[in-house]
């Protein structure tokens, strides 16, 4: 899971609190009740605007949790290309471990696939060895065919991950869109031998919903994709429900909808 704070009223203190939650996502007393104190439980990354990269790096020092910076005129991606590339470089120089970029959706609408490829390739060059997650903004792309084509172009141009949404669109991560993207990843891996990660983001708020995406990944891509290096949830609100379900489990009040029918 990637924890995210991307609001206009973000502050250093809010970012530090989010980083503390990333280090200890489950309350200490609940960890004790569940008897899992021997496990190192933490999130994969904390995602922030460039302004807060340094704050997040200091707060997460030594934790192994990555700092991701949204870039390229997030969330619309409509600033001049040179500015978007410079924004990536600034975040890389600041020490961000991952860069989340957004594409120009108009390239998809107009079928300008070479322009889309060139744009993402320029982003990748600016990222250098820093991990790049390409946000398609799938809710804006109108058709599943557009989602499929944009996914392939992003992977060809060097995406380390493809990501459904910024979380700011009217429609974010859905299972139909995710299935199309995951199958594109599978076909790309079969044809090139290169494995690209997947991140559904936005709209996944419950532990029950998350199981659908875990099943999708297992069925379509297999167990090797079920790790933080290849799969992320971009859903900060999901953590609260996971904690609630674990609390119910620890106290014997586990929700009936999660139980096996024969239980």
Q: Helicity range of the residues?
A: 40-55%
Strand content is: 5-15%
CATH homologous superfamily heading = Aldolase class I
The CATH topology is: TIM Barrel
The SSE string, one letter per element, is EHHEHEHEHHEHEHEHH
Q: Which sequence of strands runs across the widest sheet?
A: 1-2-3-4-5-6-7
What is the correct CATH architecture? Answer: Alpha-Beta Barrel
In the predicted model, the low-confidence regions spanning at least 5 consecutive residues are none
CATH class: Alpha Beta
The total of helices stands at 10
Average residue pLDDT: 93
**How widely separated are the two ends?**
29 Å
Cα-atom Rg, whole angstroms? 19 Å
Q: Could you say which structural class the secondary elements and strand pairing correspond to?
A: alpha/beta
Major β-sheet profile: 7 strands, parallel
How would you describe the shape? globular
What is the total tally of β strands?
7
Structural description of this entry:
With 263 residues, this protein is an alpha/beta fold. The protein has a single domain, classed as Alpha-Beta Barrel (TIM Barrel), CATH 3.20.20.70. 46% of the residues lie in helices and 11% in strands. The protein is built from ten helices and seven strands. It has a seven-stranded parallel sheet with strand order 1-2-3-4-5-6-7. Helix 4 links the parallel strand 3 and strand 4. Helix 6 (113-127) packs across helix 7 (144-156). The longest helix is centred in the C-terminal third of the chain and has 18 residues, at 175-192. The chain is globular, with a radius of gyration of 19 Å. The model has no long low-confidence stretch (mean pLDDT 93).
């Amino acid at each position: 899971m990637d924890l995210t704070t991307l609001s206009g009223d973000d502050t250093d203190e809010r970012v530090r609190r989010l980083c503390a939650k990333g280090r200890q996502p489950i309350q200490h007393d609940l960890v004790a009740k569940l008897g899992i104190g021997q496990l190192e439980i933490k999130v994969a990354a904390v995602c922030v605007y460039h302004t807060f990269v340094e704050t997040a790096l200091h707060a997460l020092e030594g934790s192994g949790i990555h700092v991701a910076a949204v870039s390229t005129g997030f969330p619309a991606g409509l600033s001049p290309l040179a500015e978007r590339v410079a924004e990536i470089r600034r975040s890389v120089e600041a020490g961000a471990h991952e860069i989340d970029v957004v594409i120009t959706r108009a390239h998809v609408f107009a079928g300008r696939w070479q322009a889309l490829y060139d744009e993402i390739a320029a982003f990748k060059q600016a990222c250098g060895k820093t991990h790049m997650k390409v946000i398609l903004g799938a809710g804006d792309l109108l058709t599943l065919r557009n989602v499929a084509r944009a996914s392939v172009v992003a992977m060809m141009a060097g995406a380390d991950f493809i990501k459904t949404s910024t979380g700011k669109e009217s429609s974010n991560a859905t299972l139909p869109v995710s299935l199309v993207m995951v199958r594109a990843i599978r076909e790309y891996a079969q044809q090139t031998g290169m494995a690209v990660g997947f991140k559904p983001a936005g709209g996944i708020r419950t532990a029950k919903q998350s199981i659908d995406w875990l099943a999708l990944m297992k069925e379509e891509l297999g167990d090797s994709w079920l790790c933080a290096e290849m799969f992320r949830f971009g859903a900060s609100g999901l953590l609260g429900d996971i904690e609630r379900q674990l609390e119910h489990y620890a106290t014997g009040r586990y929700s009936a909808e999660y139980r096996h029918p024969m239980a």
